[in-house]
C-alpha cells in the first residue's frame, strides 16, 4: 500500500489522494467492527490515529484481512474504476441478509488514465486539513451505536466495491484476482452501451436500505468523499 503521511498530507497528485483514502478506510473498518460489536470488544486495543483515540483489532487474521482488502481496493482505485466502497454487515446464517451498509462514496474523485496517477495536479494542493476532517468522521462513526439499533450476535461482514458507470470499465473478476461477484441484491445494473447510459439504472433490493443516516462529508482539494450508513430491510425483519 502506498505510503501516506497522516500528519502532513500533501494531495498533490491522484496517488496521494488514493493513499489518503486507504489510510482512512483502514481505520474506519476497525472502528465499525468495534462499534457494531462484530467481535468482542475485549479483542480490540486502544490506539491513536489522526490525533484521536481509535480502536484496532488485535487479532492477526482480522488485521490481515482488513489490510489485504484495503490493498485490493487501492489497486482498483488507482485504475479509476470505482465509485463506491462499502462495508456490509450480514445477519448470521442461514439468512445472511444484509443488515447495514456503511458506504464510502468516492464518485467525485478524479478520473484519469492510470499512467497519470503520479502527475502533479495543476492547482496548488489544499491546506493539510485532512487529519482534522478524518478525525471528525471517525468521531461520528464512534457515536453511531447510540443512533443505530443493536445487531444480532454472530453477524459477518464483507467489503463491496461498485464500479463507475463508464461503459469501458469491466469487473476485476477472475482466478488471479481477490474479487468475486456480490450477491445480485447488492448490485445495480450497469449500462452496457451509450444509449443505456442515458437511462436510469436499476438496482438490487438491498441497495438504498429503508433508513439512511448521513455520517460525514470530507472535502479537501481533489479528495471529495461522502460517508453514510444504510439500514436494510432485513434488519427490521429479523
Describe it.
The chain is α+β, with helices and mostly antiparallel strands and 238 residues long. The chain contains five helices and seven strands. The strands form two sheets. It has a five-stranded antiparallel sheet. A two-stranded antiparallel sheet has the order 1-2. The radius of gyration is 18 Å and the shape is globular.
Concise synopsis of the structure shown:
The chain has 238 residues and is α+β, with helices and mostly antiparallel strands. The chain is built from five helices and seven strands; from the N terminus they run H-E-E-H-E-E-H-E-H-E-E-H. Strand 6 (211-220) and strand 7 (223-231) form a beta hairpin.
Write the layout of secondary structure elements.
Layout lengths: L13 H22 L8 E6 L2 E6 L2 H18 L4 E9 L7 E8 L24 H13 L13 E8 L30 H4 L13 E10 L2 E9 L1 H5 L1
Antiparallel strand pairs: 1-2, 3-4, 3-5, 4-7, 6-7
Helix pairs in contact: 1-2, 1-3
Amino acid at each position: 500500500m502506498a505510503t501516506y503521511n497522516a500528519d502532513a498530507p500533501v494531495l498533490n497528485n491522484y496517488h496521494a489522494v488514493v493513499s489518503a483514502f486507504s489510510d482512512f478506510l483502514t481505520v474506519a473498518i476497525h472502528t465499525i467492527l468495534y462499534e457494531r460489536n462484530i467481535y468482542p470488544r475485549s479483542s480490540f486495543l486502544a490506539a491513536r490515529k489522526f490525533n484521536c483515540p481509535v480502536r484496532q483489532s488485535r487479532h492477526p487474521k482480522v488485521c490481515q484481512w482488513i489490510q489485504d482488502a484495503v490493498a485490493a481496493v487501492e489497486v482498483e482505485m488507482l485504475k479509476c474504476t470505482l465509485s463506491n466502497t462499502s462495508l456490509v454487515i450480514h445477519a448470521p446464517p442461514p439468512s445472511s441478509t444484509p443488515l447495514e451498509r456503511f458506504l464510502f462514496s468516492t464518485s467525485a474523485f478524479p478520473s484519469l488514465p492510470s499512467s497519470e496517477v503520479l502527475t502533479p495536479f495543476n492547482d496548488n494542493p489544499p491546506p493539510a486539513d485532512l487529519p482534522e476532517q478524518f478525525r471528525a468522521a471517525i468521531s461520528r462513526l464512534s457515536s453511531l451505536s447510540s443512533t443505530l439499533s443493536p445487531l444480532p450476535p454472530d453477524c459477518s461482514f464483507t467489503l463491496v466495491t461498485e464500479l463507475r458507470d463508464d461503459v469501458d470499465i469491466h469487473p476485476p473478476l477472475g482466478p488471479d484476482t481477490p474479487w468475486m461477484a456480490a450477491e445480485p441484491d447488492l448490485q445495480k445494473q450497469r449500462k452496457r452501451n451509450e444509449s443505456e447510459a442515458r437511462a436510469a439504472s436499476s438496482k438490487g433490493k438491498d441497495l438504498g436500505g429503508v433508513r439512511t443516516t448521513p455520517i460525514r462529508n470530507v472535502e479537501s482539494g481533489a479528495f471529495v468523499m461522502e460517508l453514510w450508513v444504510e439500514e436494510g430491510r432485513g434488519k427490521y425483519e429479523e
